[in-house]
Amino acid sequence: MRVETRSYRLWLVVIGVMILAGFWRPSYAEQAPPAPENDPLYMRVIASTWPSEAAILVGNGAKHSAYELYVTNAGSAPLKIVELTVQGKKNDEVVMTQTSAGKQLAAMFVPAPGDGTKPHDPILQPGQAGVFFIFANFAPGHADPDSFDTAIRIEQHGPGSGSGTIQVAELDINPAAPITIQSPLRGKNWSAANGPSNTSPHRRAVLPANGQPHIGQRYAIDWIQLGDDGNSFTGDKHKNSSYHAWDQEIHAVADGKIVEVKDGLAENVPNSGKIAVTISSDTLAGNHIIQDLGDGHFAAYAHLRPGTLKVKVGDTVHAGDVIGRLGNTGNSSEPHLHFQVCDAPSFPDSEGLPFAIDKFTRDDFKIDKAKGHAALVVKSSHPVTHEEPMYDELDSFAP
């Protein structure tokens, strides 16, 4: 035993000397074998889409659909997703293709944990999960797809790792048109803040409930009213009464029954960084109303002014009825109406659904500061029917 050990050590010394002297170098293949390509045994990734079916959004003259891809690295080596491809199919025929890579892919990705407001390199450490927020744009002049195929291409390096393309299970698209409703507001210069887009804070607002990820705000809008100077207030920005939107009437968007009412929460001091109540699932939406529109659609009106709600649970309302007034309660920094349509009577435990407003005017505008003071200038106006306002649009609604 003693002789064998000495001999073994001697060989190590000889090899070490040869390497230092440059007489022998191990090849790259001897150092690390190349990662297998497209071998499922080595691509240890769990990937699935959510929600259970995609919906069709109609906005800005086009059709879109939003869904998520959740990815978990179940392997022992870090991995990078380098490309994501969405194919829309109609009766198994490809009618649209949307491929994302580089900075565009990074802007769609949020690791867990992670900040959903900034881009992230789509890299997952072993055991880490992340989500891709997908906003598919239908191809004009082609048939609407009835399903989405989603694929990701990954790269891994190291023992037990592999690279290649992973095809995720097909996601069906609900062919139904978005529910048509009336506007909950009246008047001009309503900004669709945080409206539908792939970068809206609403789009990234994942709220796990009962073991499932939910985005009840997937197609939500924060309605803020702008003044002639393009600002949302005039005077003291720390007073709710300074805001053009504050105390505006909120109208029922359709006929339906009231299924949830929350009142009595105090208003916040706007733009103060302070919230009047502790935020929980019960106070997140502030004073609010949820209305059953039928067929699995619920209208949710949030952040209402305390003491102005005119309905109670069980009431039946009709389209256009005044049901409350706009305020600044719950998780809100200034007076605005958070409005969403969802598939359950709950803000955290629901999936957001697209909707279409029966008629409104979309205004192309700019904020002109050339004359030493800001002015909101409407360059052109367009009558619109059966669409949902998109991110930061400026819209007007007839009385």
Distance between the termini: 98 Å
The biggest beta sheet is recorded as: 12 strands, mixed
Q: Which residues form runs of ≥5 with pLDDT under 50?
A: 1-31
Order of helices and strands: HHEEEEEHEEEEEEEEEEEEEEEEEEEEEE
The helix content is under 10%
Rg for CA atoms? 27 Å
- CA-based shape: globular
Characteristic key phrases:
mainly beta, 6-stranded antiparallel sheet, 399 residues, 3 helices, disordered N terminus, 27 strands, 12-stranded mixed sheet, single chain, globular
What does this protein structure show overall?
The model is unreliable at 1-31 (pLDDT under 50). This protein is 8% helix and 41% strand. The longest helix is centred in the first third of the chain and has 20 residues, at 2-21. It has three helices and 27 strands. The chain is mainly beta. The protein has helices at residues 2-21, 28-31, 102-108; strands at 45-50, 57-59, 62-73, 79-90, 93-101, 109-112, 123-124, 129-137, 147-156, 164-167, 171-172, 179-181, 187-193, 207-209, 212-214, 221-225, 249-251, 256-262, 287-294, 297-304, 316-317, 322-325, 337-342, 352-353, 355-368, 375-387, 394-397. Strands 12, 13, 16, 18, 19, 20, 21, 23, 24, 25, 26 and 27 form a twelve-stranded mixed beta sheet that branches. Strands 4, 5, 7, 9, 10 and 11 form a six-stranded antiparallel beta sheet that branches. A hairpin with a 6-residue loop joins strand 25 and strand 26.
Overview in brief:
With 399 residues, the chain is mostly beta strands.
What's the topology here?
Layout: H1 2-21, H2 28-31, E1 45-50, E2 57-59, E3 62-73, E4 79-90, E5 93-101, H3 102-108, E6 109-112, E7 123-124, E8 129-137, E9 147-156, E10 164-167, E11 171-172, E12 179-181, E13 187-193, E14 207-209, E15 212-214, E16 221-225, E17 249-251, E18 256-262, E19 287-294, E20 297-304, E21 316-317, E22 322-325, E23 337-342, E24 352-353, E25 355-368, E26 375-387, E27 394-397
Parallel strand pairs: 12-25
Antiparallel strand pairs: 1-3, 2-3, 3-8, 4-5, 4-7, 4-9, 6-8, 9-10, 9-11, 13-16, 13-27, 14-15, 16-23, 17-22, 18-19, 18-21, 19-20, 20-23, 23-24, 25-26, 25-27
